[in-house]
Amino acid sequence: MSSDAVTIIDAADMGRRRFLTGSTIVVGAIGAGFVAVPFLGSWMPSKKALAAGAPVEADIAKLDMGQAIKVEWRGKSVIIVRRSEKVLETLTEVESKLADPNSENTAQQPEYALNQHRSINSEYLILLSWCTHLGCSPTFAPEVRADWQGGFICPCHGSKFDMAGRVHKGMPAPTNMIVPPHQYLSDTRILIGVDQGAQV
Questions:
Q1: Is the pLDDT of residue 6 over 60?
Q2: Distance of CA 77 to CAs 6, 32, 38, 56, 106, Å?
Q3: Residue 169 in contact with residue 155, Cβ under 8 Å?
Q4: pLDDT at position 84 over 60
Q5: CB-count burial class (<10 Å; 0-12, 13-18, 19+) for 196
Q6: E-assigned strands of the chain?
Q7: Which CATH superfamily does the domain covering 50-192 fall into?
Q8: What pLDDT is recorded for position 66?
């Protein structure tokens, strides 16, 4: 009888040990999960970082002729200008005043904007509102005067750009304003940050 009692006690003890071992493993796994999730999450870019590099949509439906709007992309302002036929005609008239009228510095615009009007659709100009001299934000100055056909003037050091963002000769800015990657989602919506023809 005493040997049976010993056997029963050992079997019960083994059951308890298995239960405690299993419970410890489960609790340990849950604890490891609580530690691992924030740790692995810290490797992921923040929502702010993701948004900073994300493409941005611009609605140009209400943009009247001669007007401009600005949108933020990657922490920089992008200016979108709606140009009239009369403004587009001035692009050839000012070429003799420009440092790079044919946009030969191809790093300043995507290939699809490598044309006289520096855009996909000649009516709309899309530029980083950023002077290539020291990064100030040029002022949109569309008013035509005797010596000025309209464009952009940098308030910091006076660099002048025409209505296609091409720099005038003898200015502190060494190159034309930058045309960011963009594509048209429709006649009235532009996606800035993704090249024309690329999958969205």
A1: no
A2: 82, 44, 34, 11, 21
A3: no
A4: yes
A5: middle
A6: 56-59, 68-73, 76-82, 124-128, 139-141, 151-153, 160-161, 182-184, 189-192
A7: Rieske [2Fe-2S] iron-sulphur domain (2.102.10.10)
A8: 94
Q: Give the model's pLDDT for residue 48.
A: 55
Longest dimension (CA), the chain: 120
pLDDT of residue 56: 94
pLDDT tens for each residue of 94-137: 999 999 999 999 899 999 999 999 999 999 999 999 999 998 99
- pLDDT value at position 18? 77
Order of strands, sheet of 182-184, starting from the edge strand that comes earlier in the sequence? 56-59, 189-192, 182-184
Q: Which of 88, 45, 36, 80 is nearest to 62 (CA)?
A: 80
Q: Report the DSSP pairing between strands 56-59 and 189-192.
A: antiparallel
Encoded tokens for 19: 């239960």
- Cβ atoms of 80 and 163 within 8 Å: the answer is no
CA-CA distance, 160 to 168, in Å (whole number)? 6
Give the start-to-end residue ranges of the domains of the chain.
1-44, 50-192
Residue among 116, 123, 108 at smallest CA distance from 177: 108
> What is the average pLDDT value for the chain, to the nearest integer?
86
